[in-house]
Specification:
CATH architecture of one domain: 3-Layer(aba) Sandwich
Number of strands: 13
Strand content: 5-15%
Number of helices: 24
Length: 736
């Protein structure tokens, strides 16, 4: 049968999305009464259990966290309280929730001494029976350890954990106001614990600051003693150094030494320069030993000498006078003789003076050389003295800095010690109480909330369980699942029939206009339309397992075909034959096995049934090996003979999942109808057997969904059941 296009089927919906809310709702709706019942029972049970619990009272107080600087004197280095902003508020919250604060409250209120918090010996459970008489002889169990009263410290620690876990600290909006609350079964105790909590919070801060002040004072005192000793030691070292080096005004001495070095350095430079100048002149004069007067006058230092320059000028004037007189007078002239005598006298004086000058230059050179050497020695000695002074000055300054540093540290610590003492006189707390708890008000048990939570929890659990059961349920529940789960076309559905008072169910021939008859005709129409060109003469009806209604469908389908043509229905299920019983025939009535074996003739094995002309061939005597009979040539010949006598042969076969008879019969069939029982047959098994038939090249025409209840399907799929019913039962069968 050709698979019809899903788009032309008005009752076949488009492929569902992975998450179908309508399907999910239908799953829960189908099991609504168990879900609602269990949820209501859970709500009632939760309310009952909550009502049996003792009353709970809550006391609440308000605290304002101060963010301003608390200290009158600023000593931030001693008390480093951190940034007083968001981090500061969070720190205060954590301090309020701290276990140490809870322990202070427990110890102050002496909660471990109250009767209600005293531990009691564990009672023996009701199920703990004395079975010593049943124990074997010689069995010596370990003796039970006697119950020991916990120590006082253990009780305090246990109550501390209880109080710390019960106290609630919450911030009121974005303000600095904090609400502290505590719940217990005693309203007055709740208020007392909350108020003590606030008092101990403020007291713990003051105690911590007092301890911090004491520790800071002790540390500063110890540090001052050490600093005082260090200062005195550094001062003694400074004074000892001054005494040893006999230093009075090192700064003045250093200044004078610098000036002396500057003066000596000038003298040395000048003497060296003069010595270098005279050294060149002396070397030149020494190289001119035995030179004439004129040659000696060529030396600048000789010529530029004041006396030499004057004598040389006189000599030149005497020479000029001789030259002038020689033009007028002869050599014997008295004037001429006087002039020559004057010239010679001047010449001799010049030569004598030149000798003195040369000797003076030698003497001046020696003096300049000695002056240079002496100034160089004095300069070096003065530099060494200054370097020694510089070293002493460096050591002196180092000692002075040490004294100054120790003095400054001593002054700083002394100032901080005084500040710490002043700060310890008054220390403002970081918070102040706004409202004290006046008494606890009842907050539990909240029966309504417990009932709602129990209802919601049970509702979620049962809905989840319903969904899991739906997922685990692999049966076919409605026609739309046939092609999805079995991947086979749907020929039709057979409605669920209820047995009458006589134990019978409705048959096709009882009322040909009933819903059941209409369903059978729809299946008949599907079979006919699946093979219009070559009509199916042999139709095999089978199923996965027994009890799925294949015999009923085969007989009623044959009855509907008998209205149109000569039809024979054969009971081929020789393992559990039921066709004879349904046709009111004797169980030993001759049938298929008798005809194939040749024991009876064909007319003896076929019986007319009803007024429609339907012929019935029951299974007959049950053979030893039914499969051998169905696979024999005699069975093949019998079918060929029956095909010549009847236009349509419908075979009621054994289930595929039990024996192989159906596989053999399917090989002779022109069409095979696979029956699936609604909400009973496993889709996995059905698909497995259908695939086996297809792989064996058996002509699987389609699937018939038996025992389908549209009203029940509507619980799962909403209006589907109603729509399907209207379509299914209001359609006129034109082939009927």
């Amino acid at each position: 049968m050709n698979n019809p296009d899903k788009r032309h089927d008005p009752f076949f919906e488009e492929e569902e999305s992975p998450f179908d809310l309508q399907l999910l709702f239908s799953i829960f709706w189908a099991r609504k009464w168990p879900i609602i019942g269990l949820s209501l029972a859970s709500a009632v049970f939760s309310a009952f259990m909550t009502a049996s619990e003792p009353s709970v009272f809550e006391a609440q107080a308000s605290l304002l966290i101060e963010q301003g600087e608390s200290n009158v004197v600023s000593i931030q280095d001693v008390y480093n309280q951190g940034y007083r902003g968001w981090e500061y508020m969070q720190t205060q919250f954590e301090l309020l929730r701290s276990r140490s604060l809870a322990e202070r409250v427990v110890r102050r209120l002496q909660l471990h001494t109250m009767a209600k918090f005293q531990p009691v010996p564990p009672s023996k459970p009701w199920y703990d029976f004395d079975l010593s008489a049943l124990k074997p002889a010689g069995f010596n169990p370990e003796p039970e350890q006697p119950w020991v009263m916990p120590s006082e410290e253990s009780l305090i620690q246990g109550l501390t954990d209880m109080v710390a876990s019960t106290v609630s600290v919450t911030q009121r909006g974005d303000s600095n106001v904090v609400s502290v609350s505590y719940r217990s079964d005693d309203p007055q105790l709740s208020a007392t614990i909350v108020n003590t909590y606030l008092e101990e919070f403020i007291r713990s801060y003051l105690d911590a600051n007092e301890e911090s002040t004491r520790q800071a004072t002790d540390w500063l005192n110890q540090s001052l003693i050490t600093l005082r000793e260090n200062l005195r030691a550094s001062e003694d070292r400074l004074q000892s150094f001054r005494d040893e080096e006999q230093l009075i005004d090192l700064q003045g001495i250093t200044t004078l030494s610098a000036q002396e070095i500057s003066s000596l350095n000038s003298t040395y430079n000048e003497s060296r320069q003069r010595r270098q100048e005279l050294e060149a002149t002396v070397q030149e004069l020494r190289s001119m030993q035995g030179a004439s007067t004129e040659e000696l006058l060529s030396v600048p230092d000789v010529l530029n000498h004041e006396v030499i320059r004057s004598l040389n000028q006189n000599r030149m004037e005497s020479q000029r006078a001789v030259n002038e007189l020689s033009q007028r007078y002869g050599p014997k002239h008295p004037k001429m003789i006087d002039a020559i005598s004057q010239l010679n006298s001047t010449q001799m004086a010049l030569e004598s003076e030149i000798g003195n000058v040369v000797y003076g230059i030698e003497r001046e050179y020696q003096v300049a050389l000695n002056t240079e050497t002496s100034s160089k020695r004095q300069l070096d000695e003065t530099k060494l003295d200054l370097q020694d002074l510089n070293r002493k000055e460096f050591v002196l300054k180092e000692l002075e800095r040490e004294v100054e540093t120790n003095s400054q540290l001593y002054d700083i610590f002394l100032t901080r010690l005084k500040e710490t003492g002043e700060a310890g006189i008054f220390e403002a707390p970081p918070a102040r109480v706004i409202d004290l708890a006046q008494g606890g008000y009842q907050v539990g048990p909240n029966i309504r909330r417990s009932a709602i939570m129990g209802f919601i929890a049970a509702l979620a659990l049962t809905c989840g369980l319903a969904f899991v059961l739906h997922v685990l349920d692999n049966t076919v529940k409605d026609p739309s699942e046939v092609e999805v789960k079995l991947r086979s076309p749907l020929l039709g559905t057979v409605p669920l029939l209820k047995k009458g008072k006589d134990g019978r169910i409705e048959e096709y021939w009882d009322d040909t206009q009933s819903e059941f008859a209409e369903a059978i005709r729809t299946i008949r129409t599907g079979v006919v339309l699946s093979a219009l060109d070559t009509p199916s003469k042999i139709i095999v009806v089978t199923s996965s397992m027994p009890g799925e209604g294949k015999s009923t469908v085969a007989l009623n389908l044959a009855a509907s075909f008998a209205q149109m043509e000569s039809t024979l229905v054969i009971g081929a299920d020789m393992r559990r034959p039921s066709l004879a019983r349904r046709c009111n025939l004797h169980a030993r009535h001759p049938g298929l096995s008798d005809f194939v074996s040749g024991k009876n003739k064909l007319e003896e094995c076929i019986t007319a049934f009803g007024e429609s002309g339907l012929k019935v061939m029951p299974a007959g005597a049950i053979p030893t090996n039914p499969l051998e009979l169905l696979s024999s040539n005699r069975f093949r010949d019998a079918l060929e003979l029956l095909k010549t006598r009847f236009e349509r042969i419908i075979i009621d076969s054994a289930p595929v999942g039990v024996v192989s008879d159906a596989m053999m019969l399917a090989s002779f069939a022109d069409s095979l109808i696979f029956l699936v029982k609604t909400d009973s047959t496993s889709a996995t098994l059905a698909r497995k057997y259908i695939n086996q038939l297809i792989r064996a090249n058996d002509p699987v025409t389609g699937v018939v969904l038996n025992c389908f209840d549209p009203a029940k399907a509507s619980k799962y799929y909403g209006t589907y059941g109603t729509a399907y019913t209207e379509k299914y039962y209001n359609t006129t069968d034109t082939h009927g």
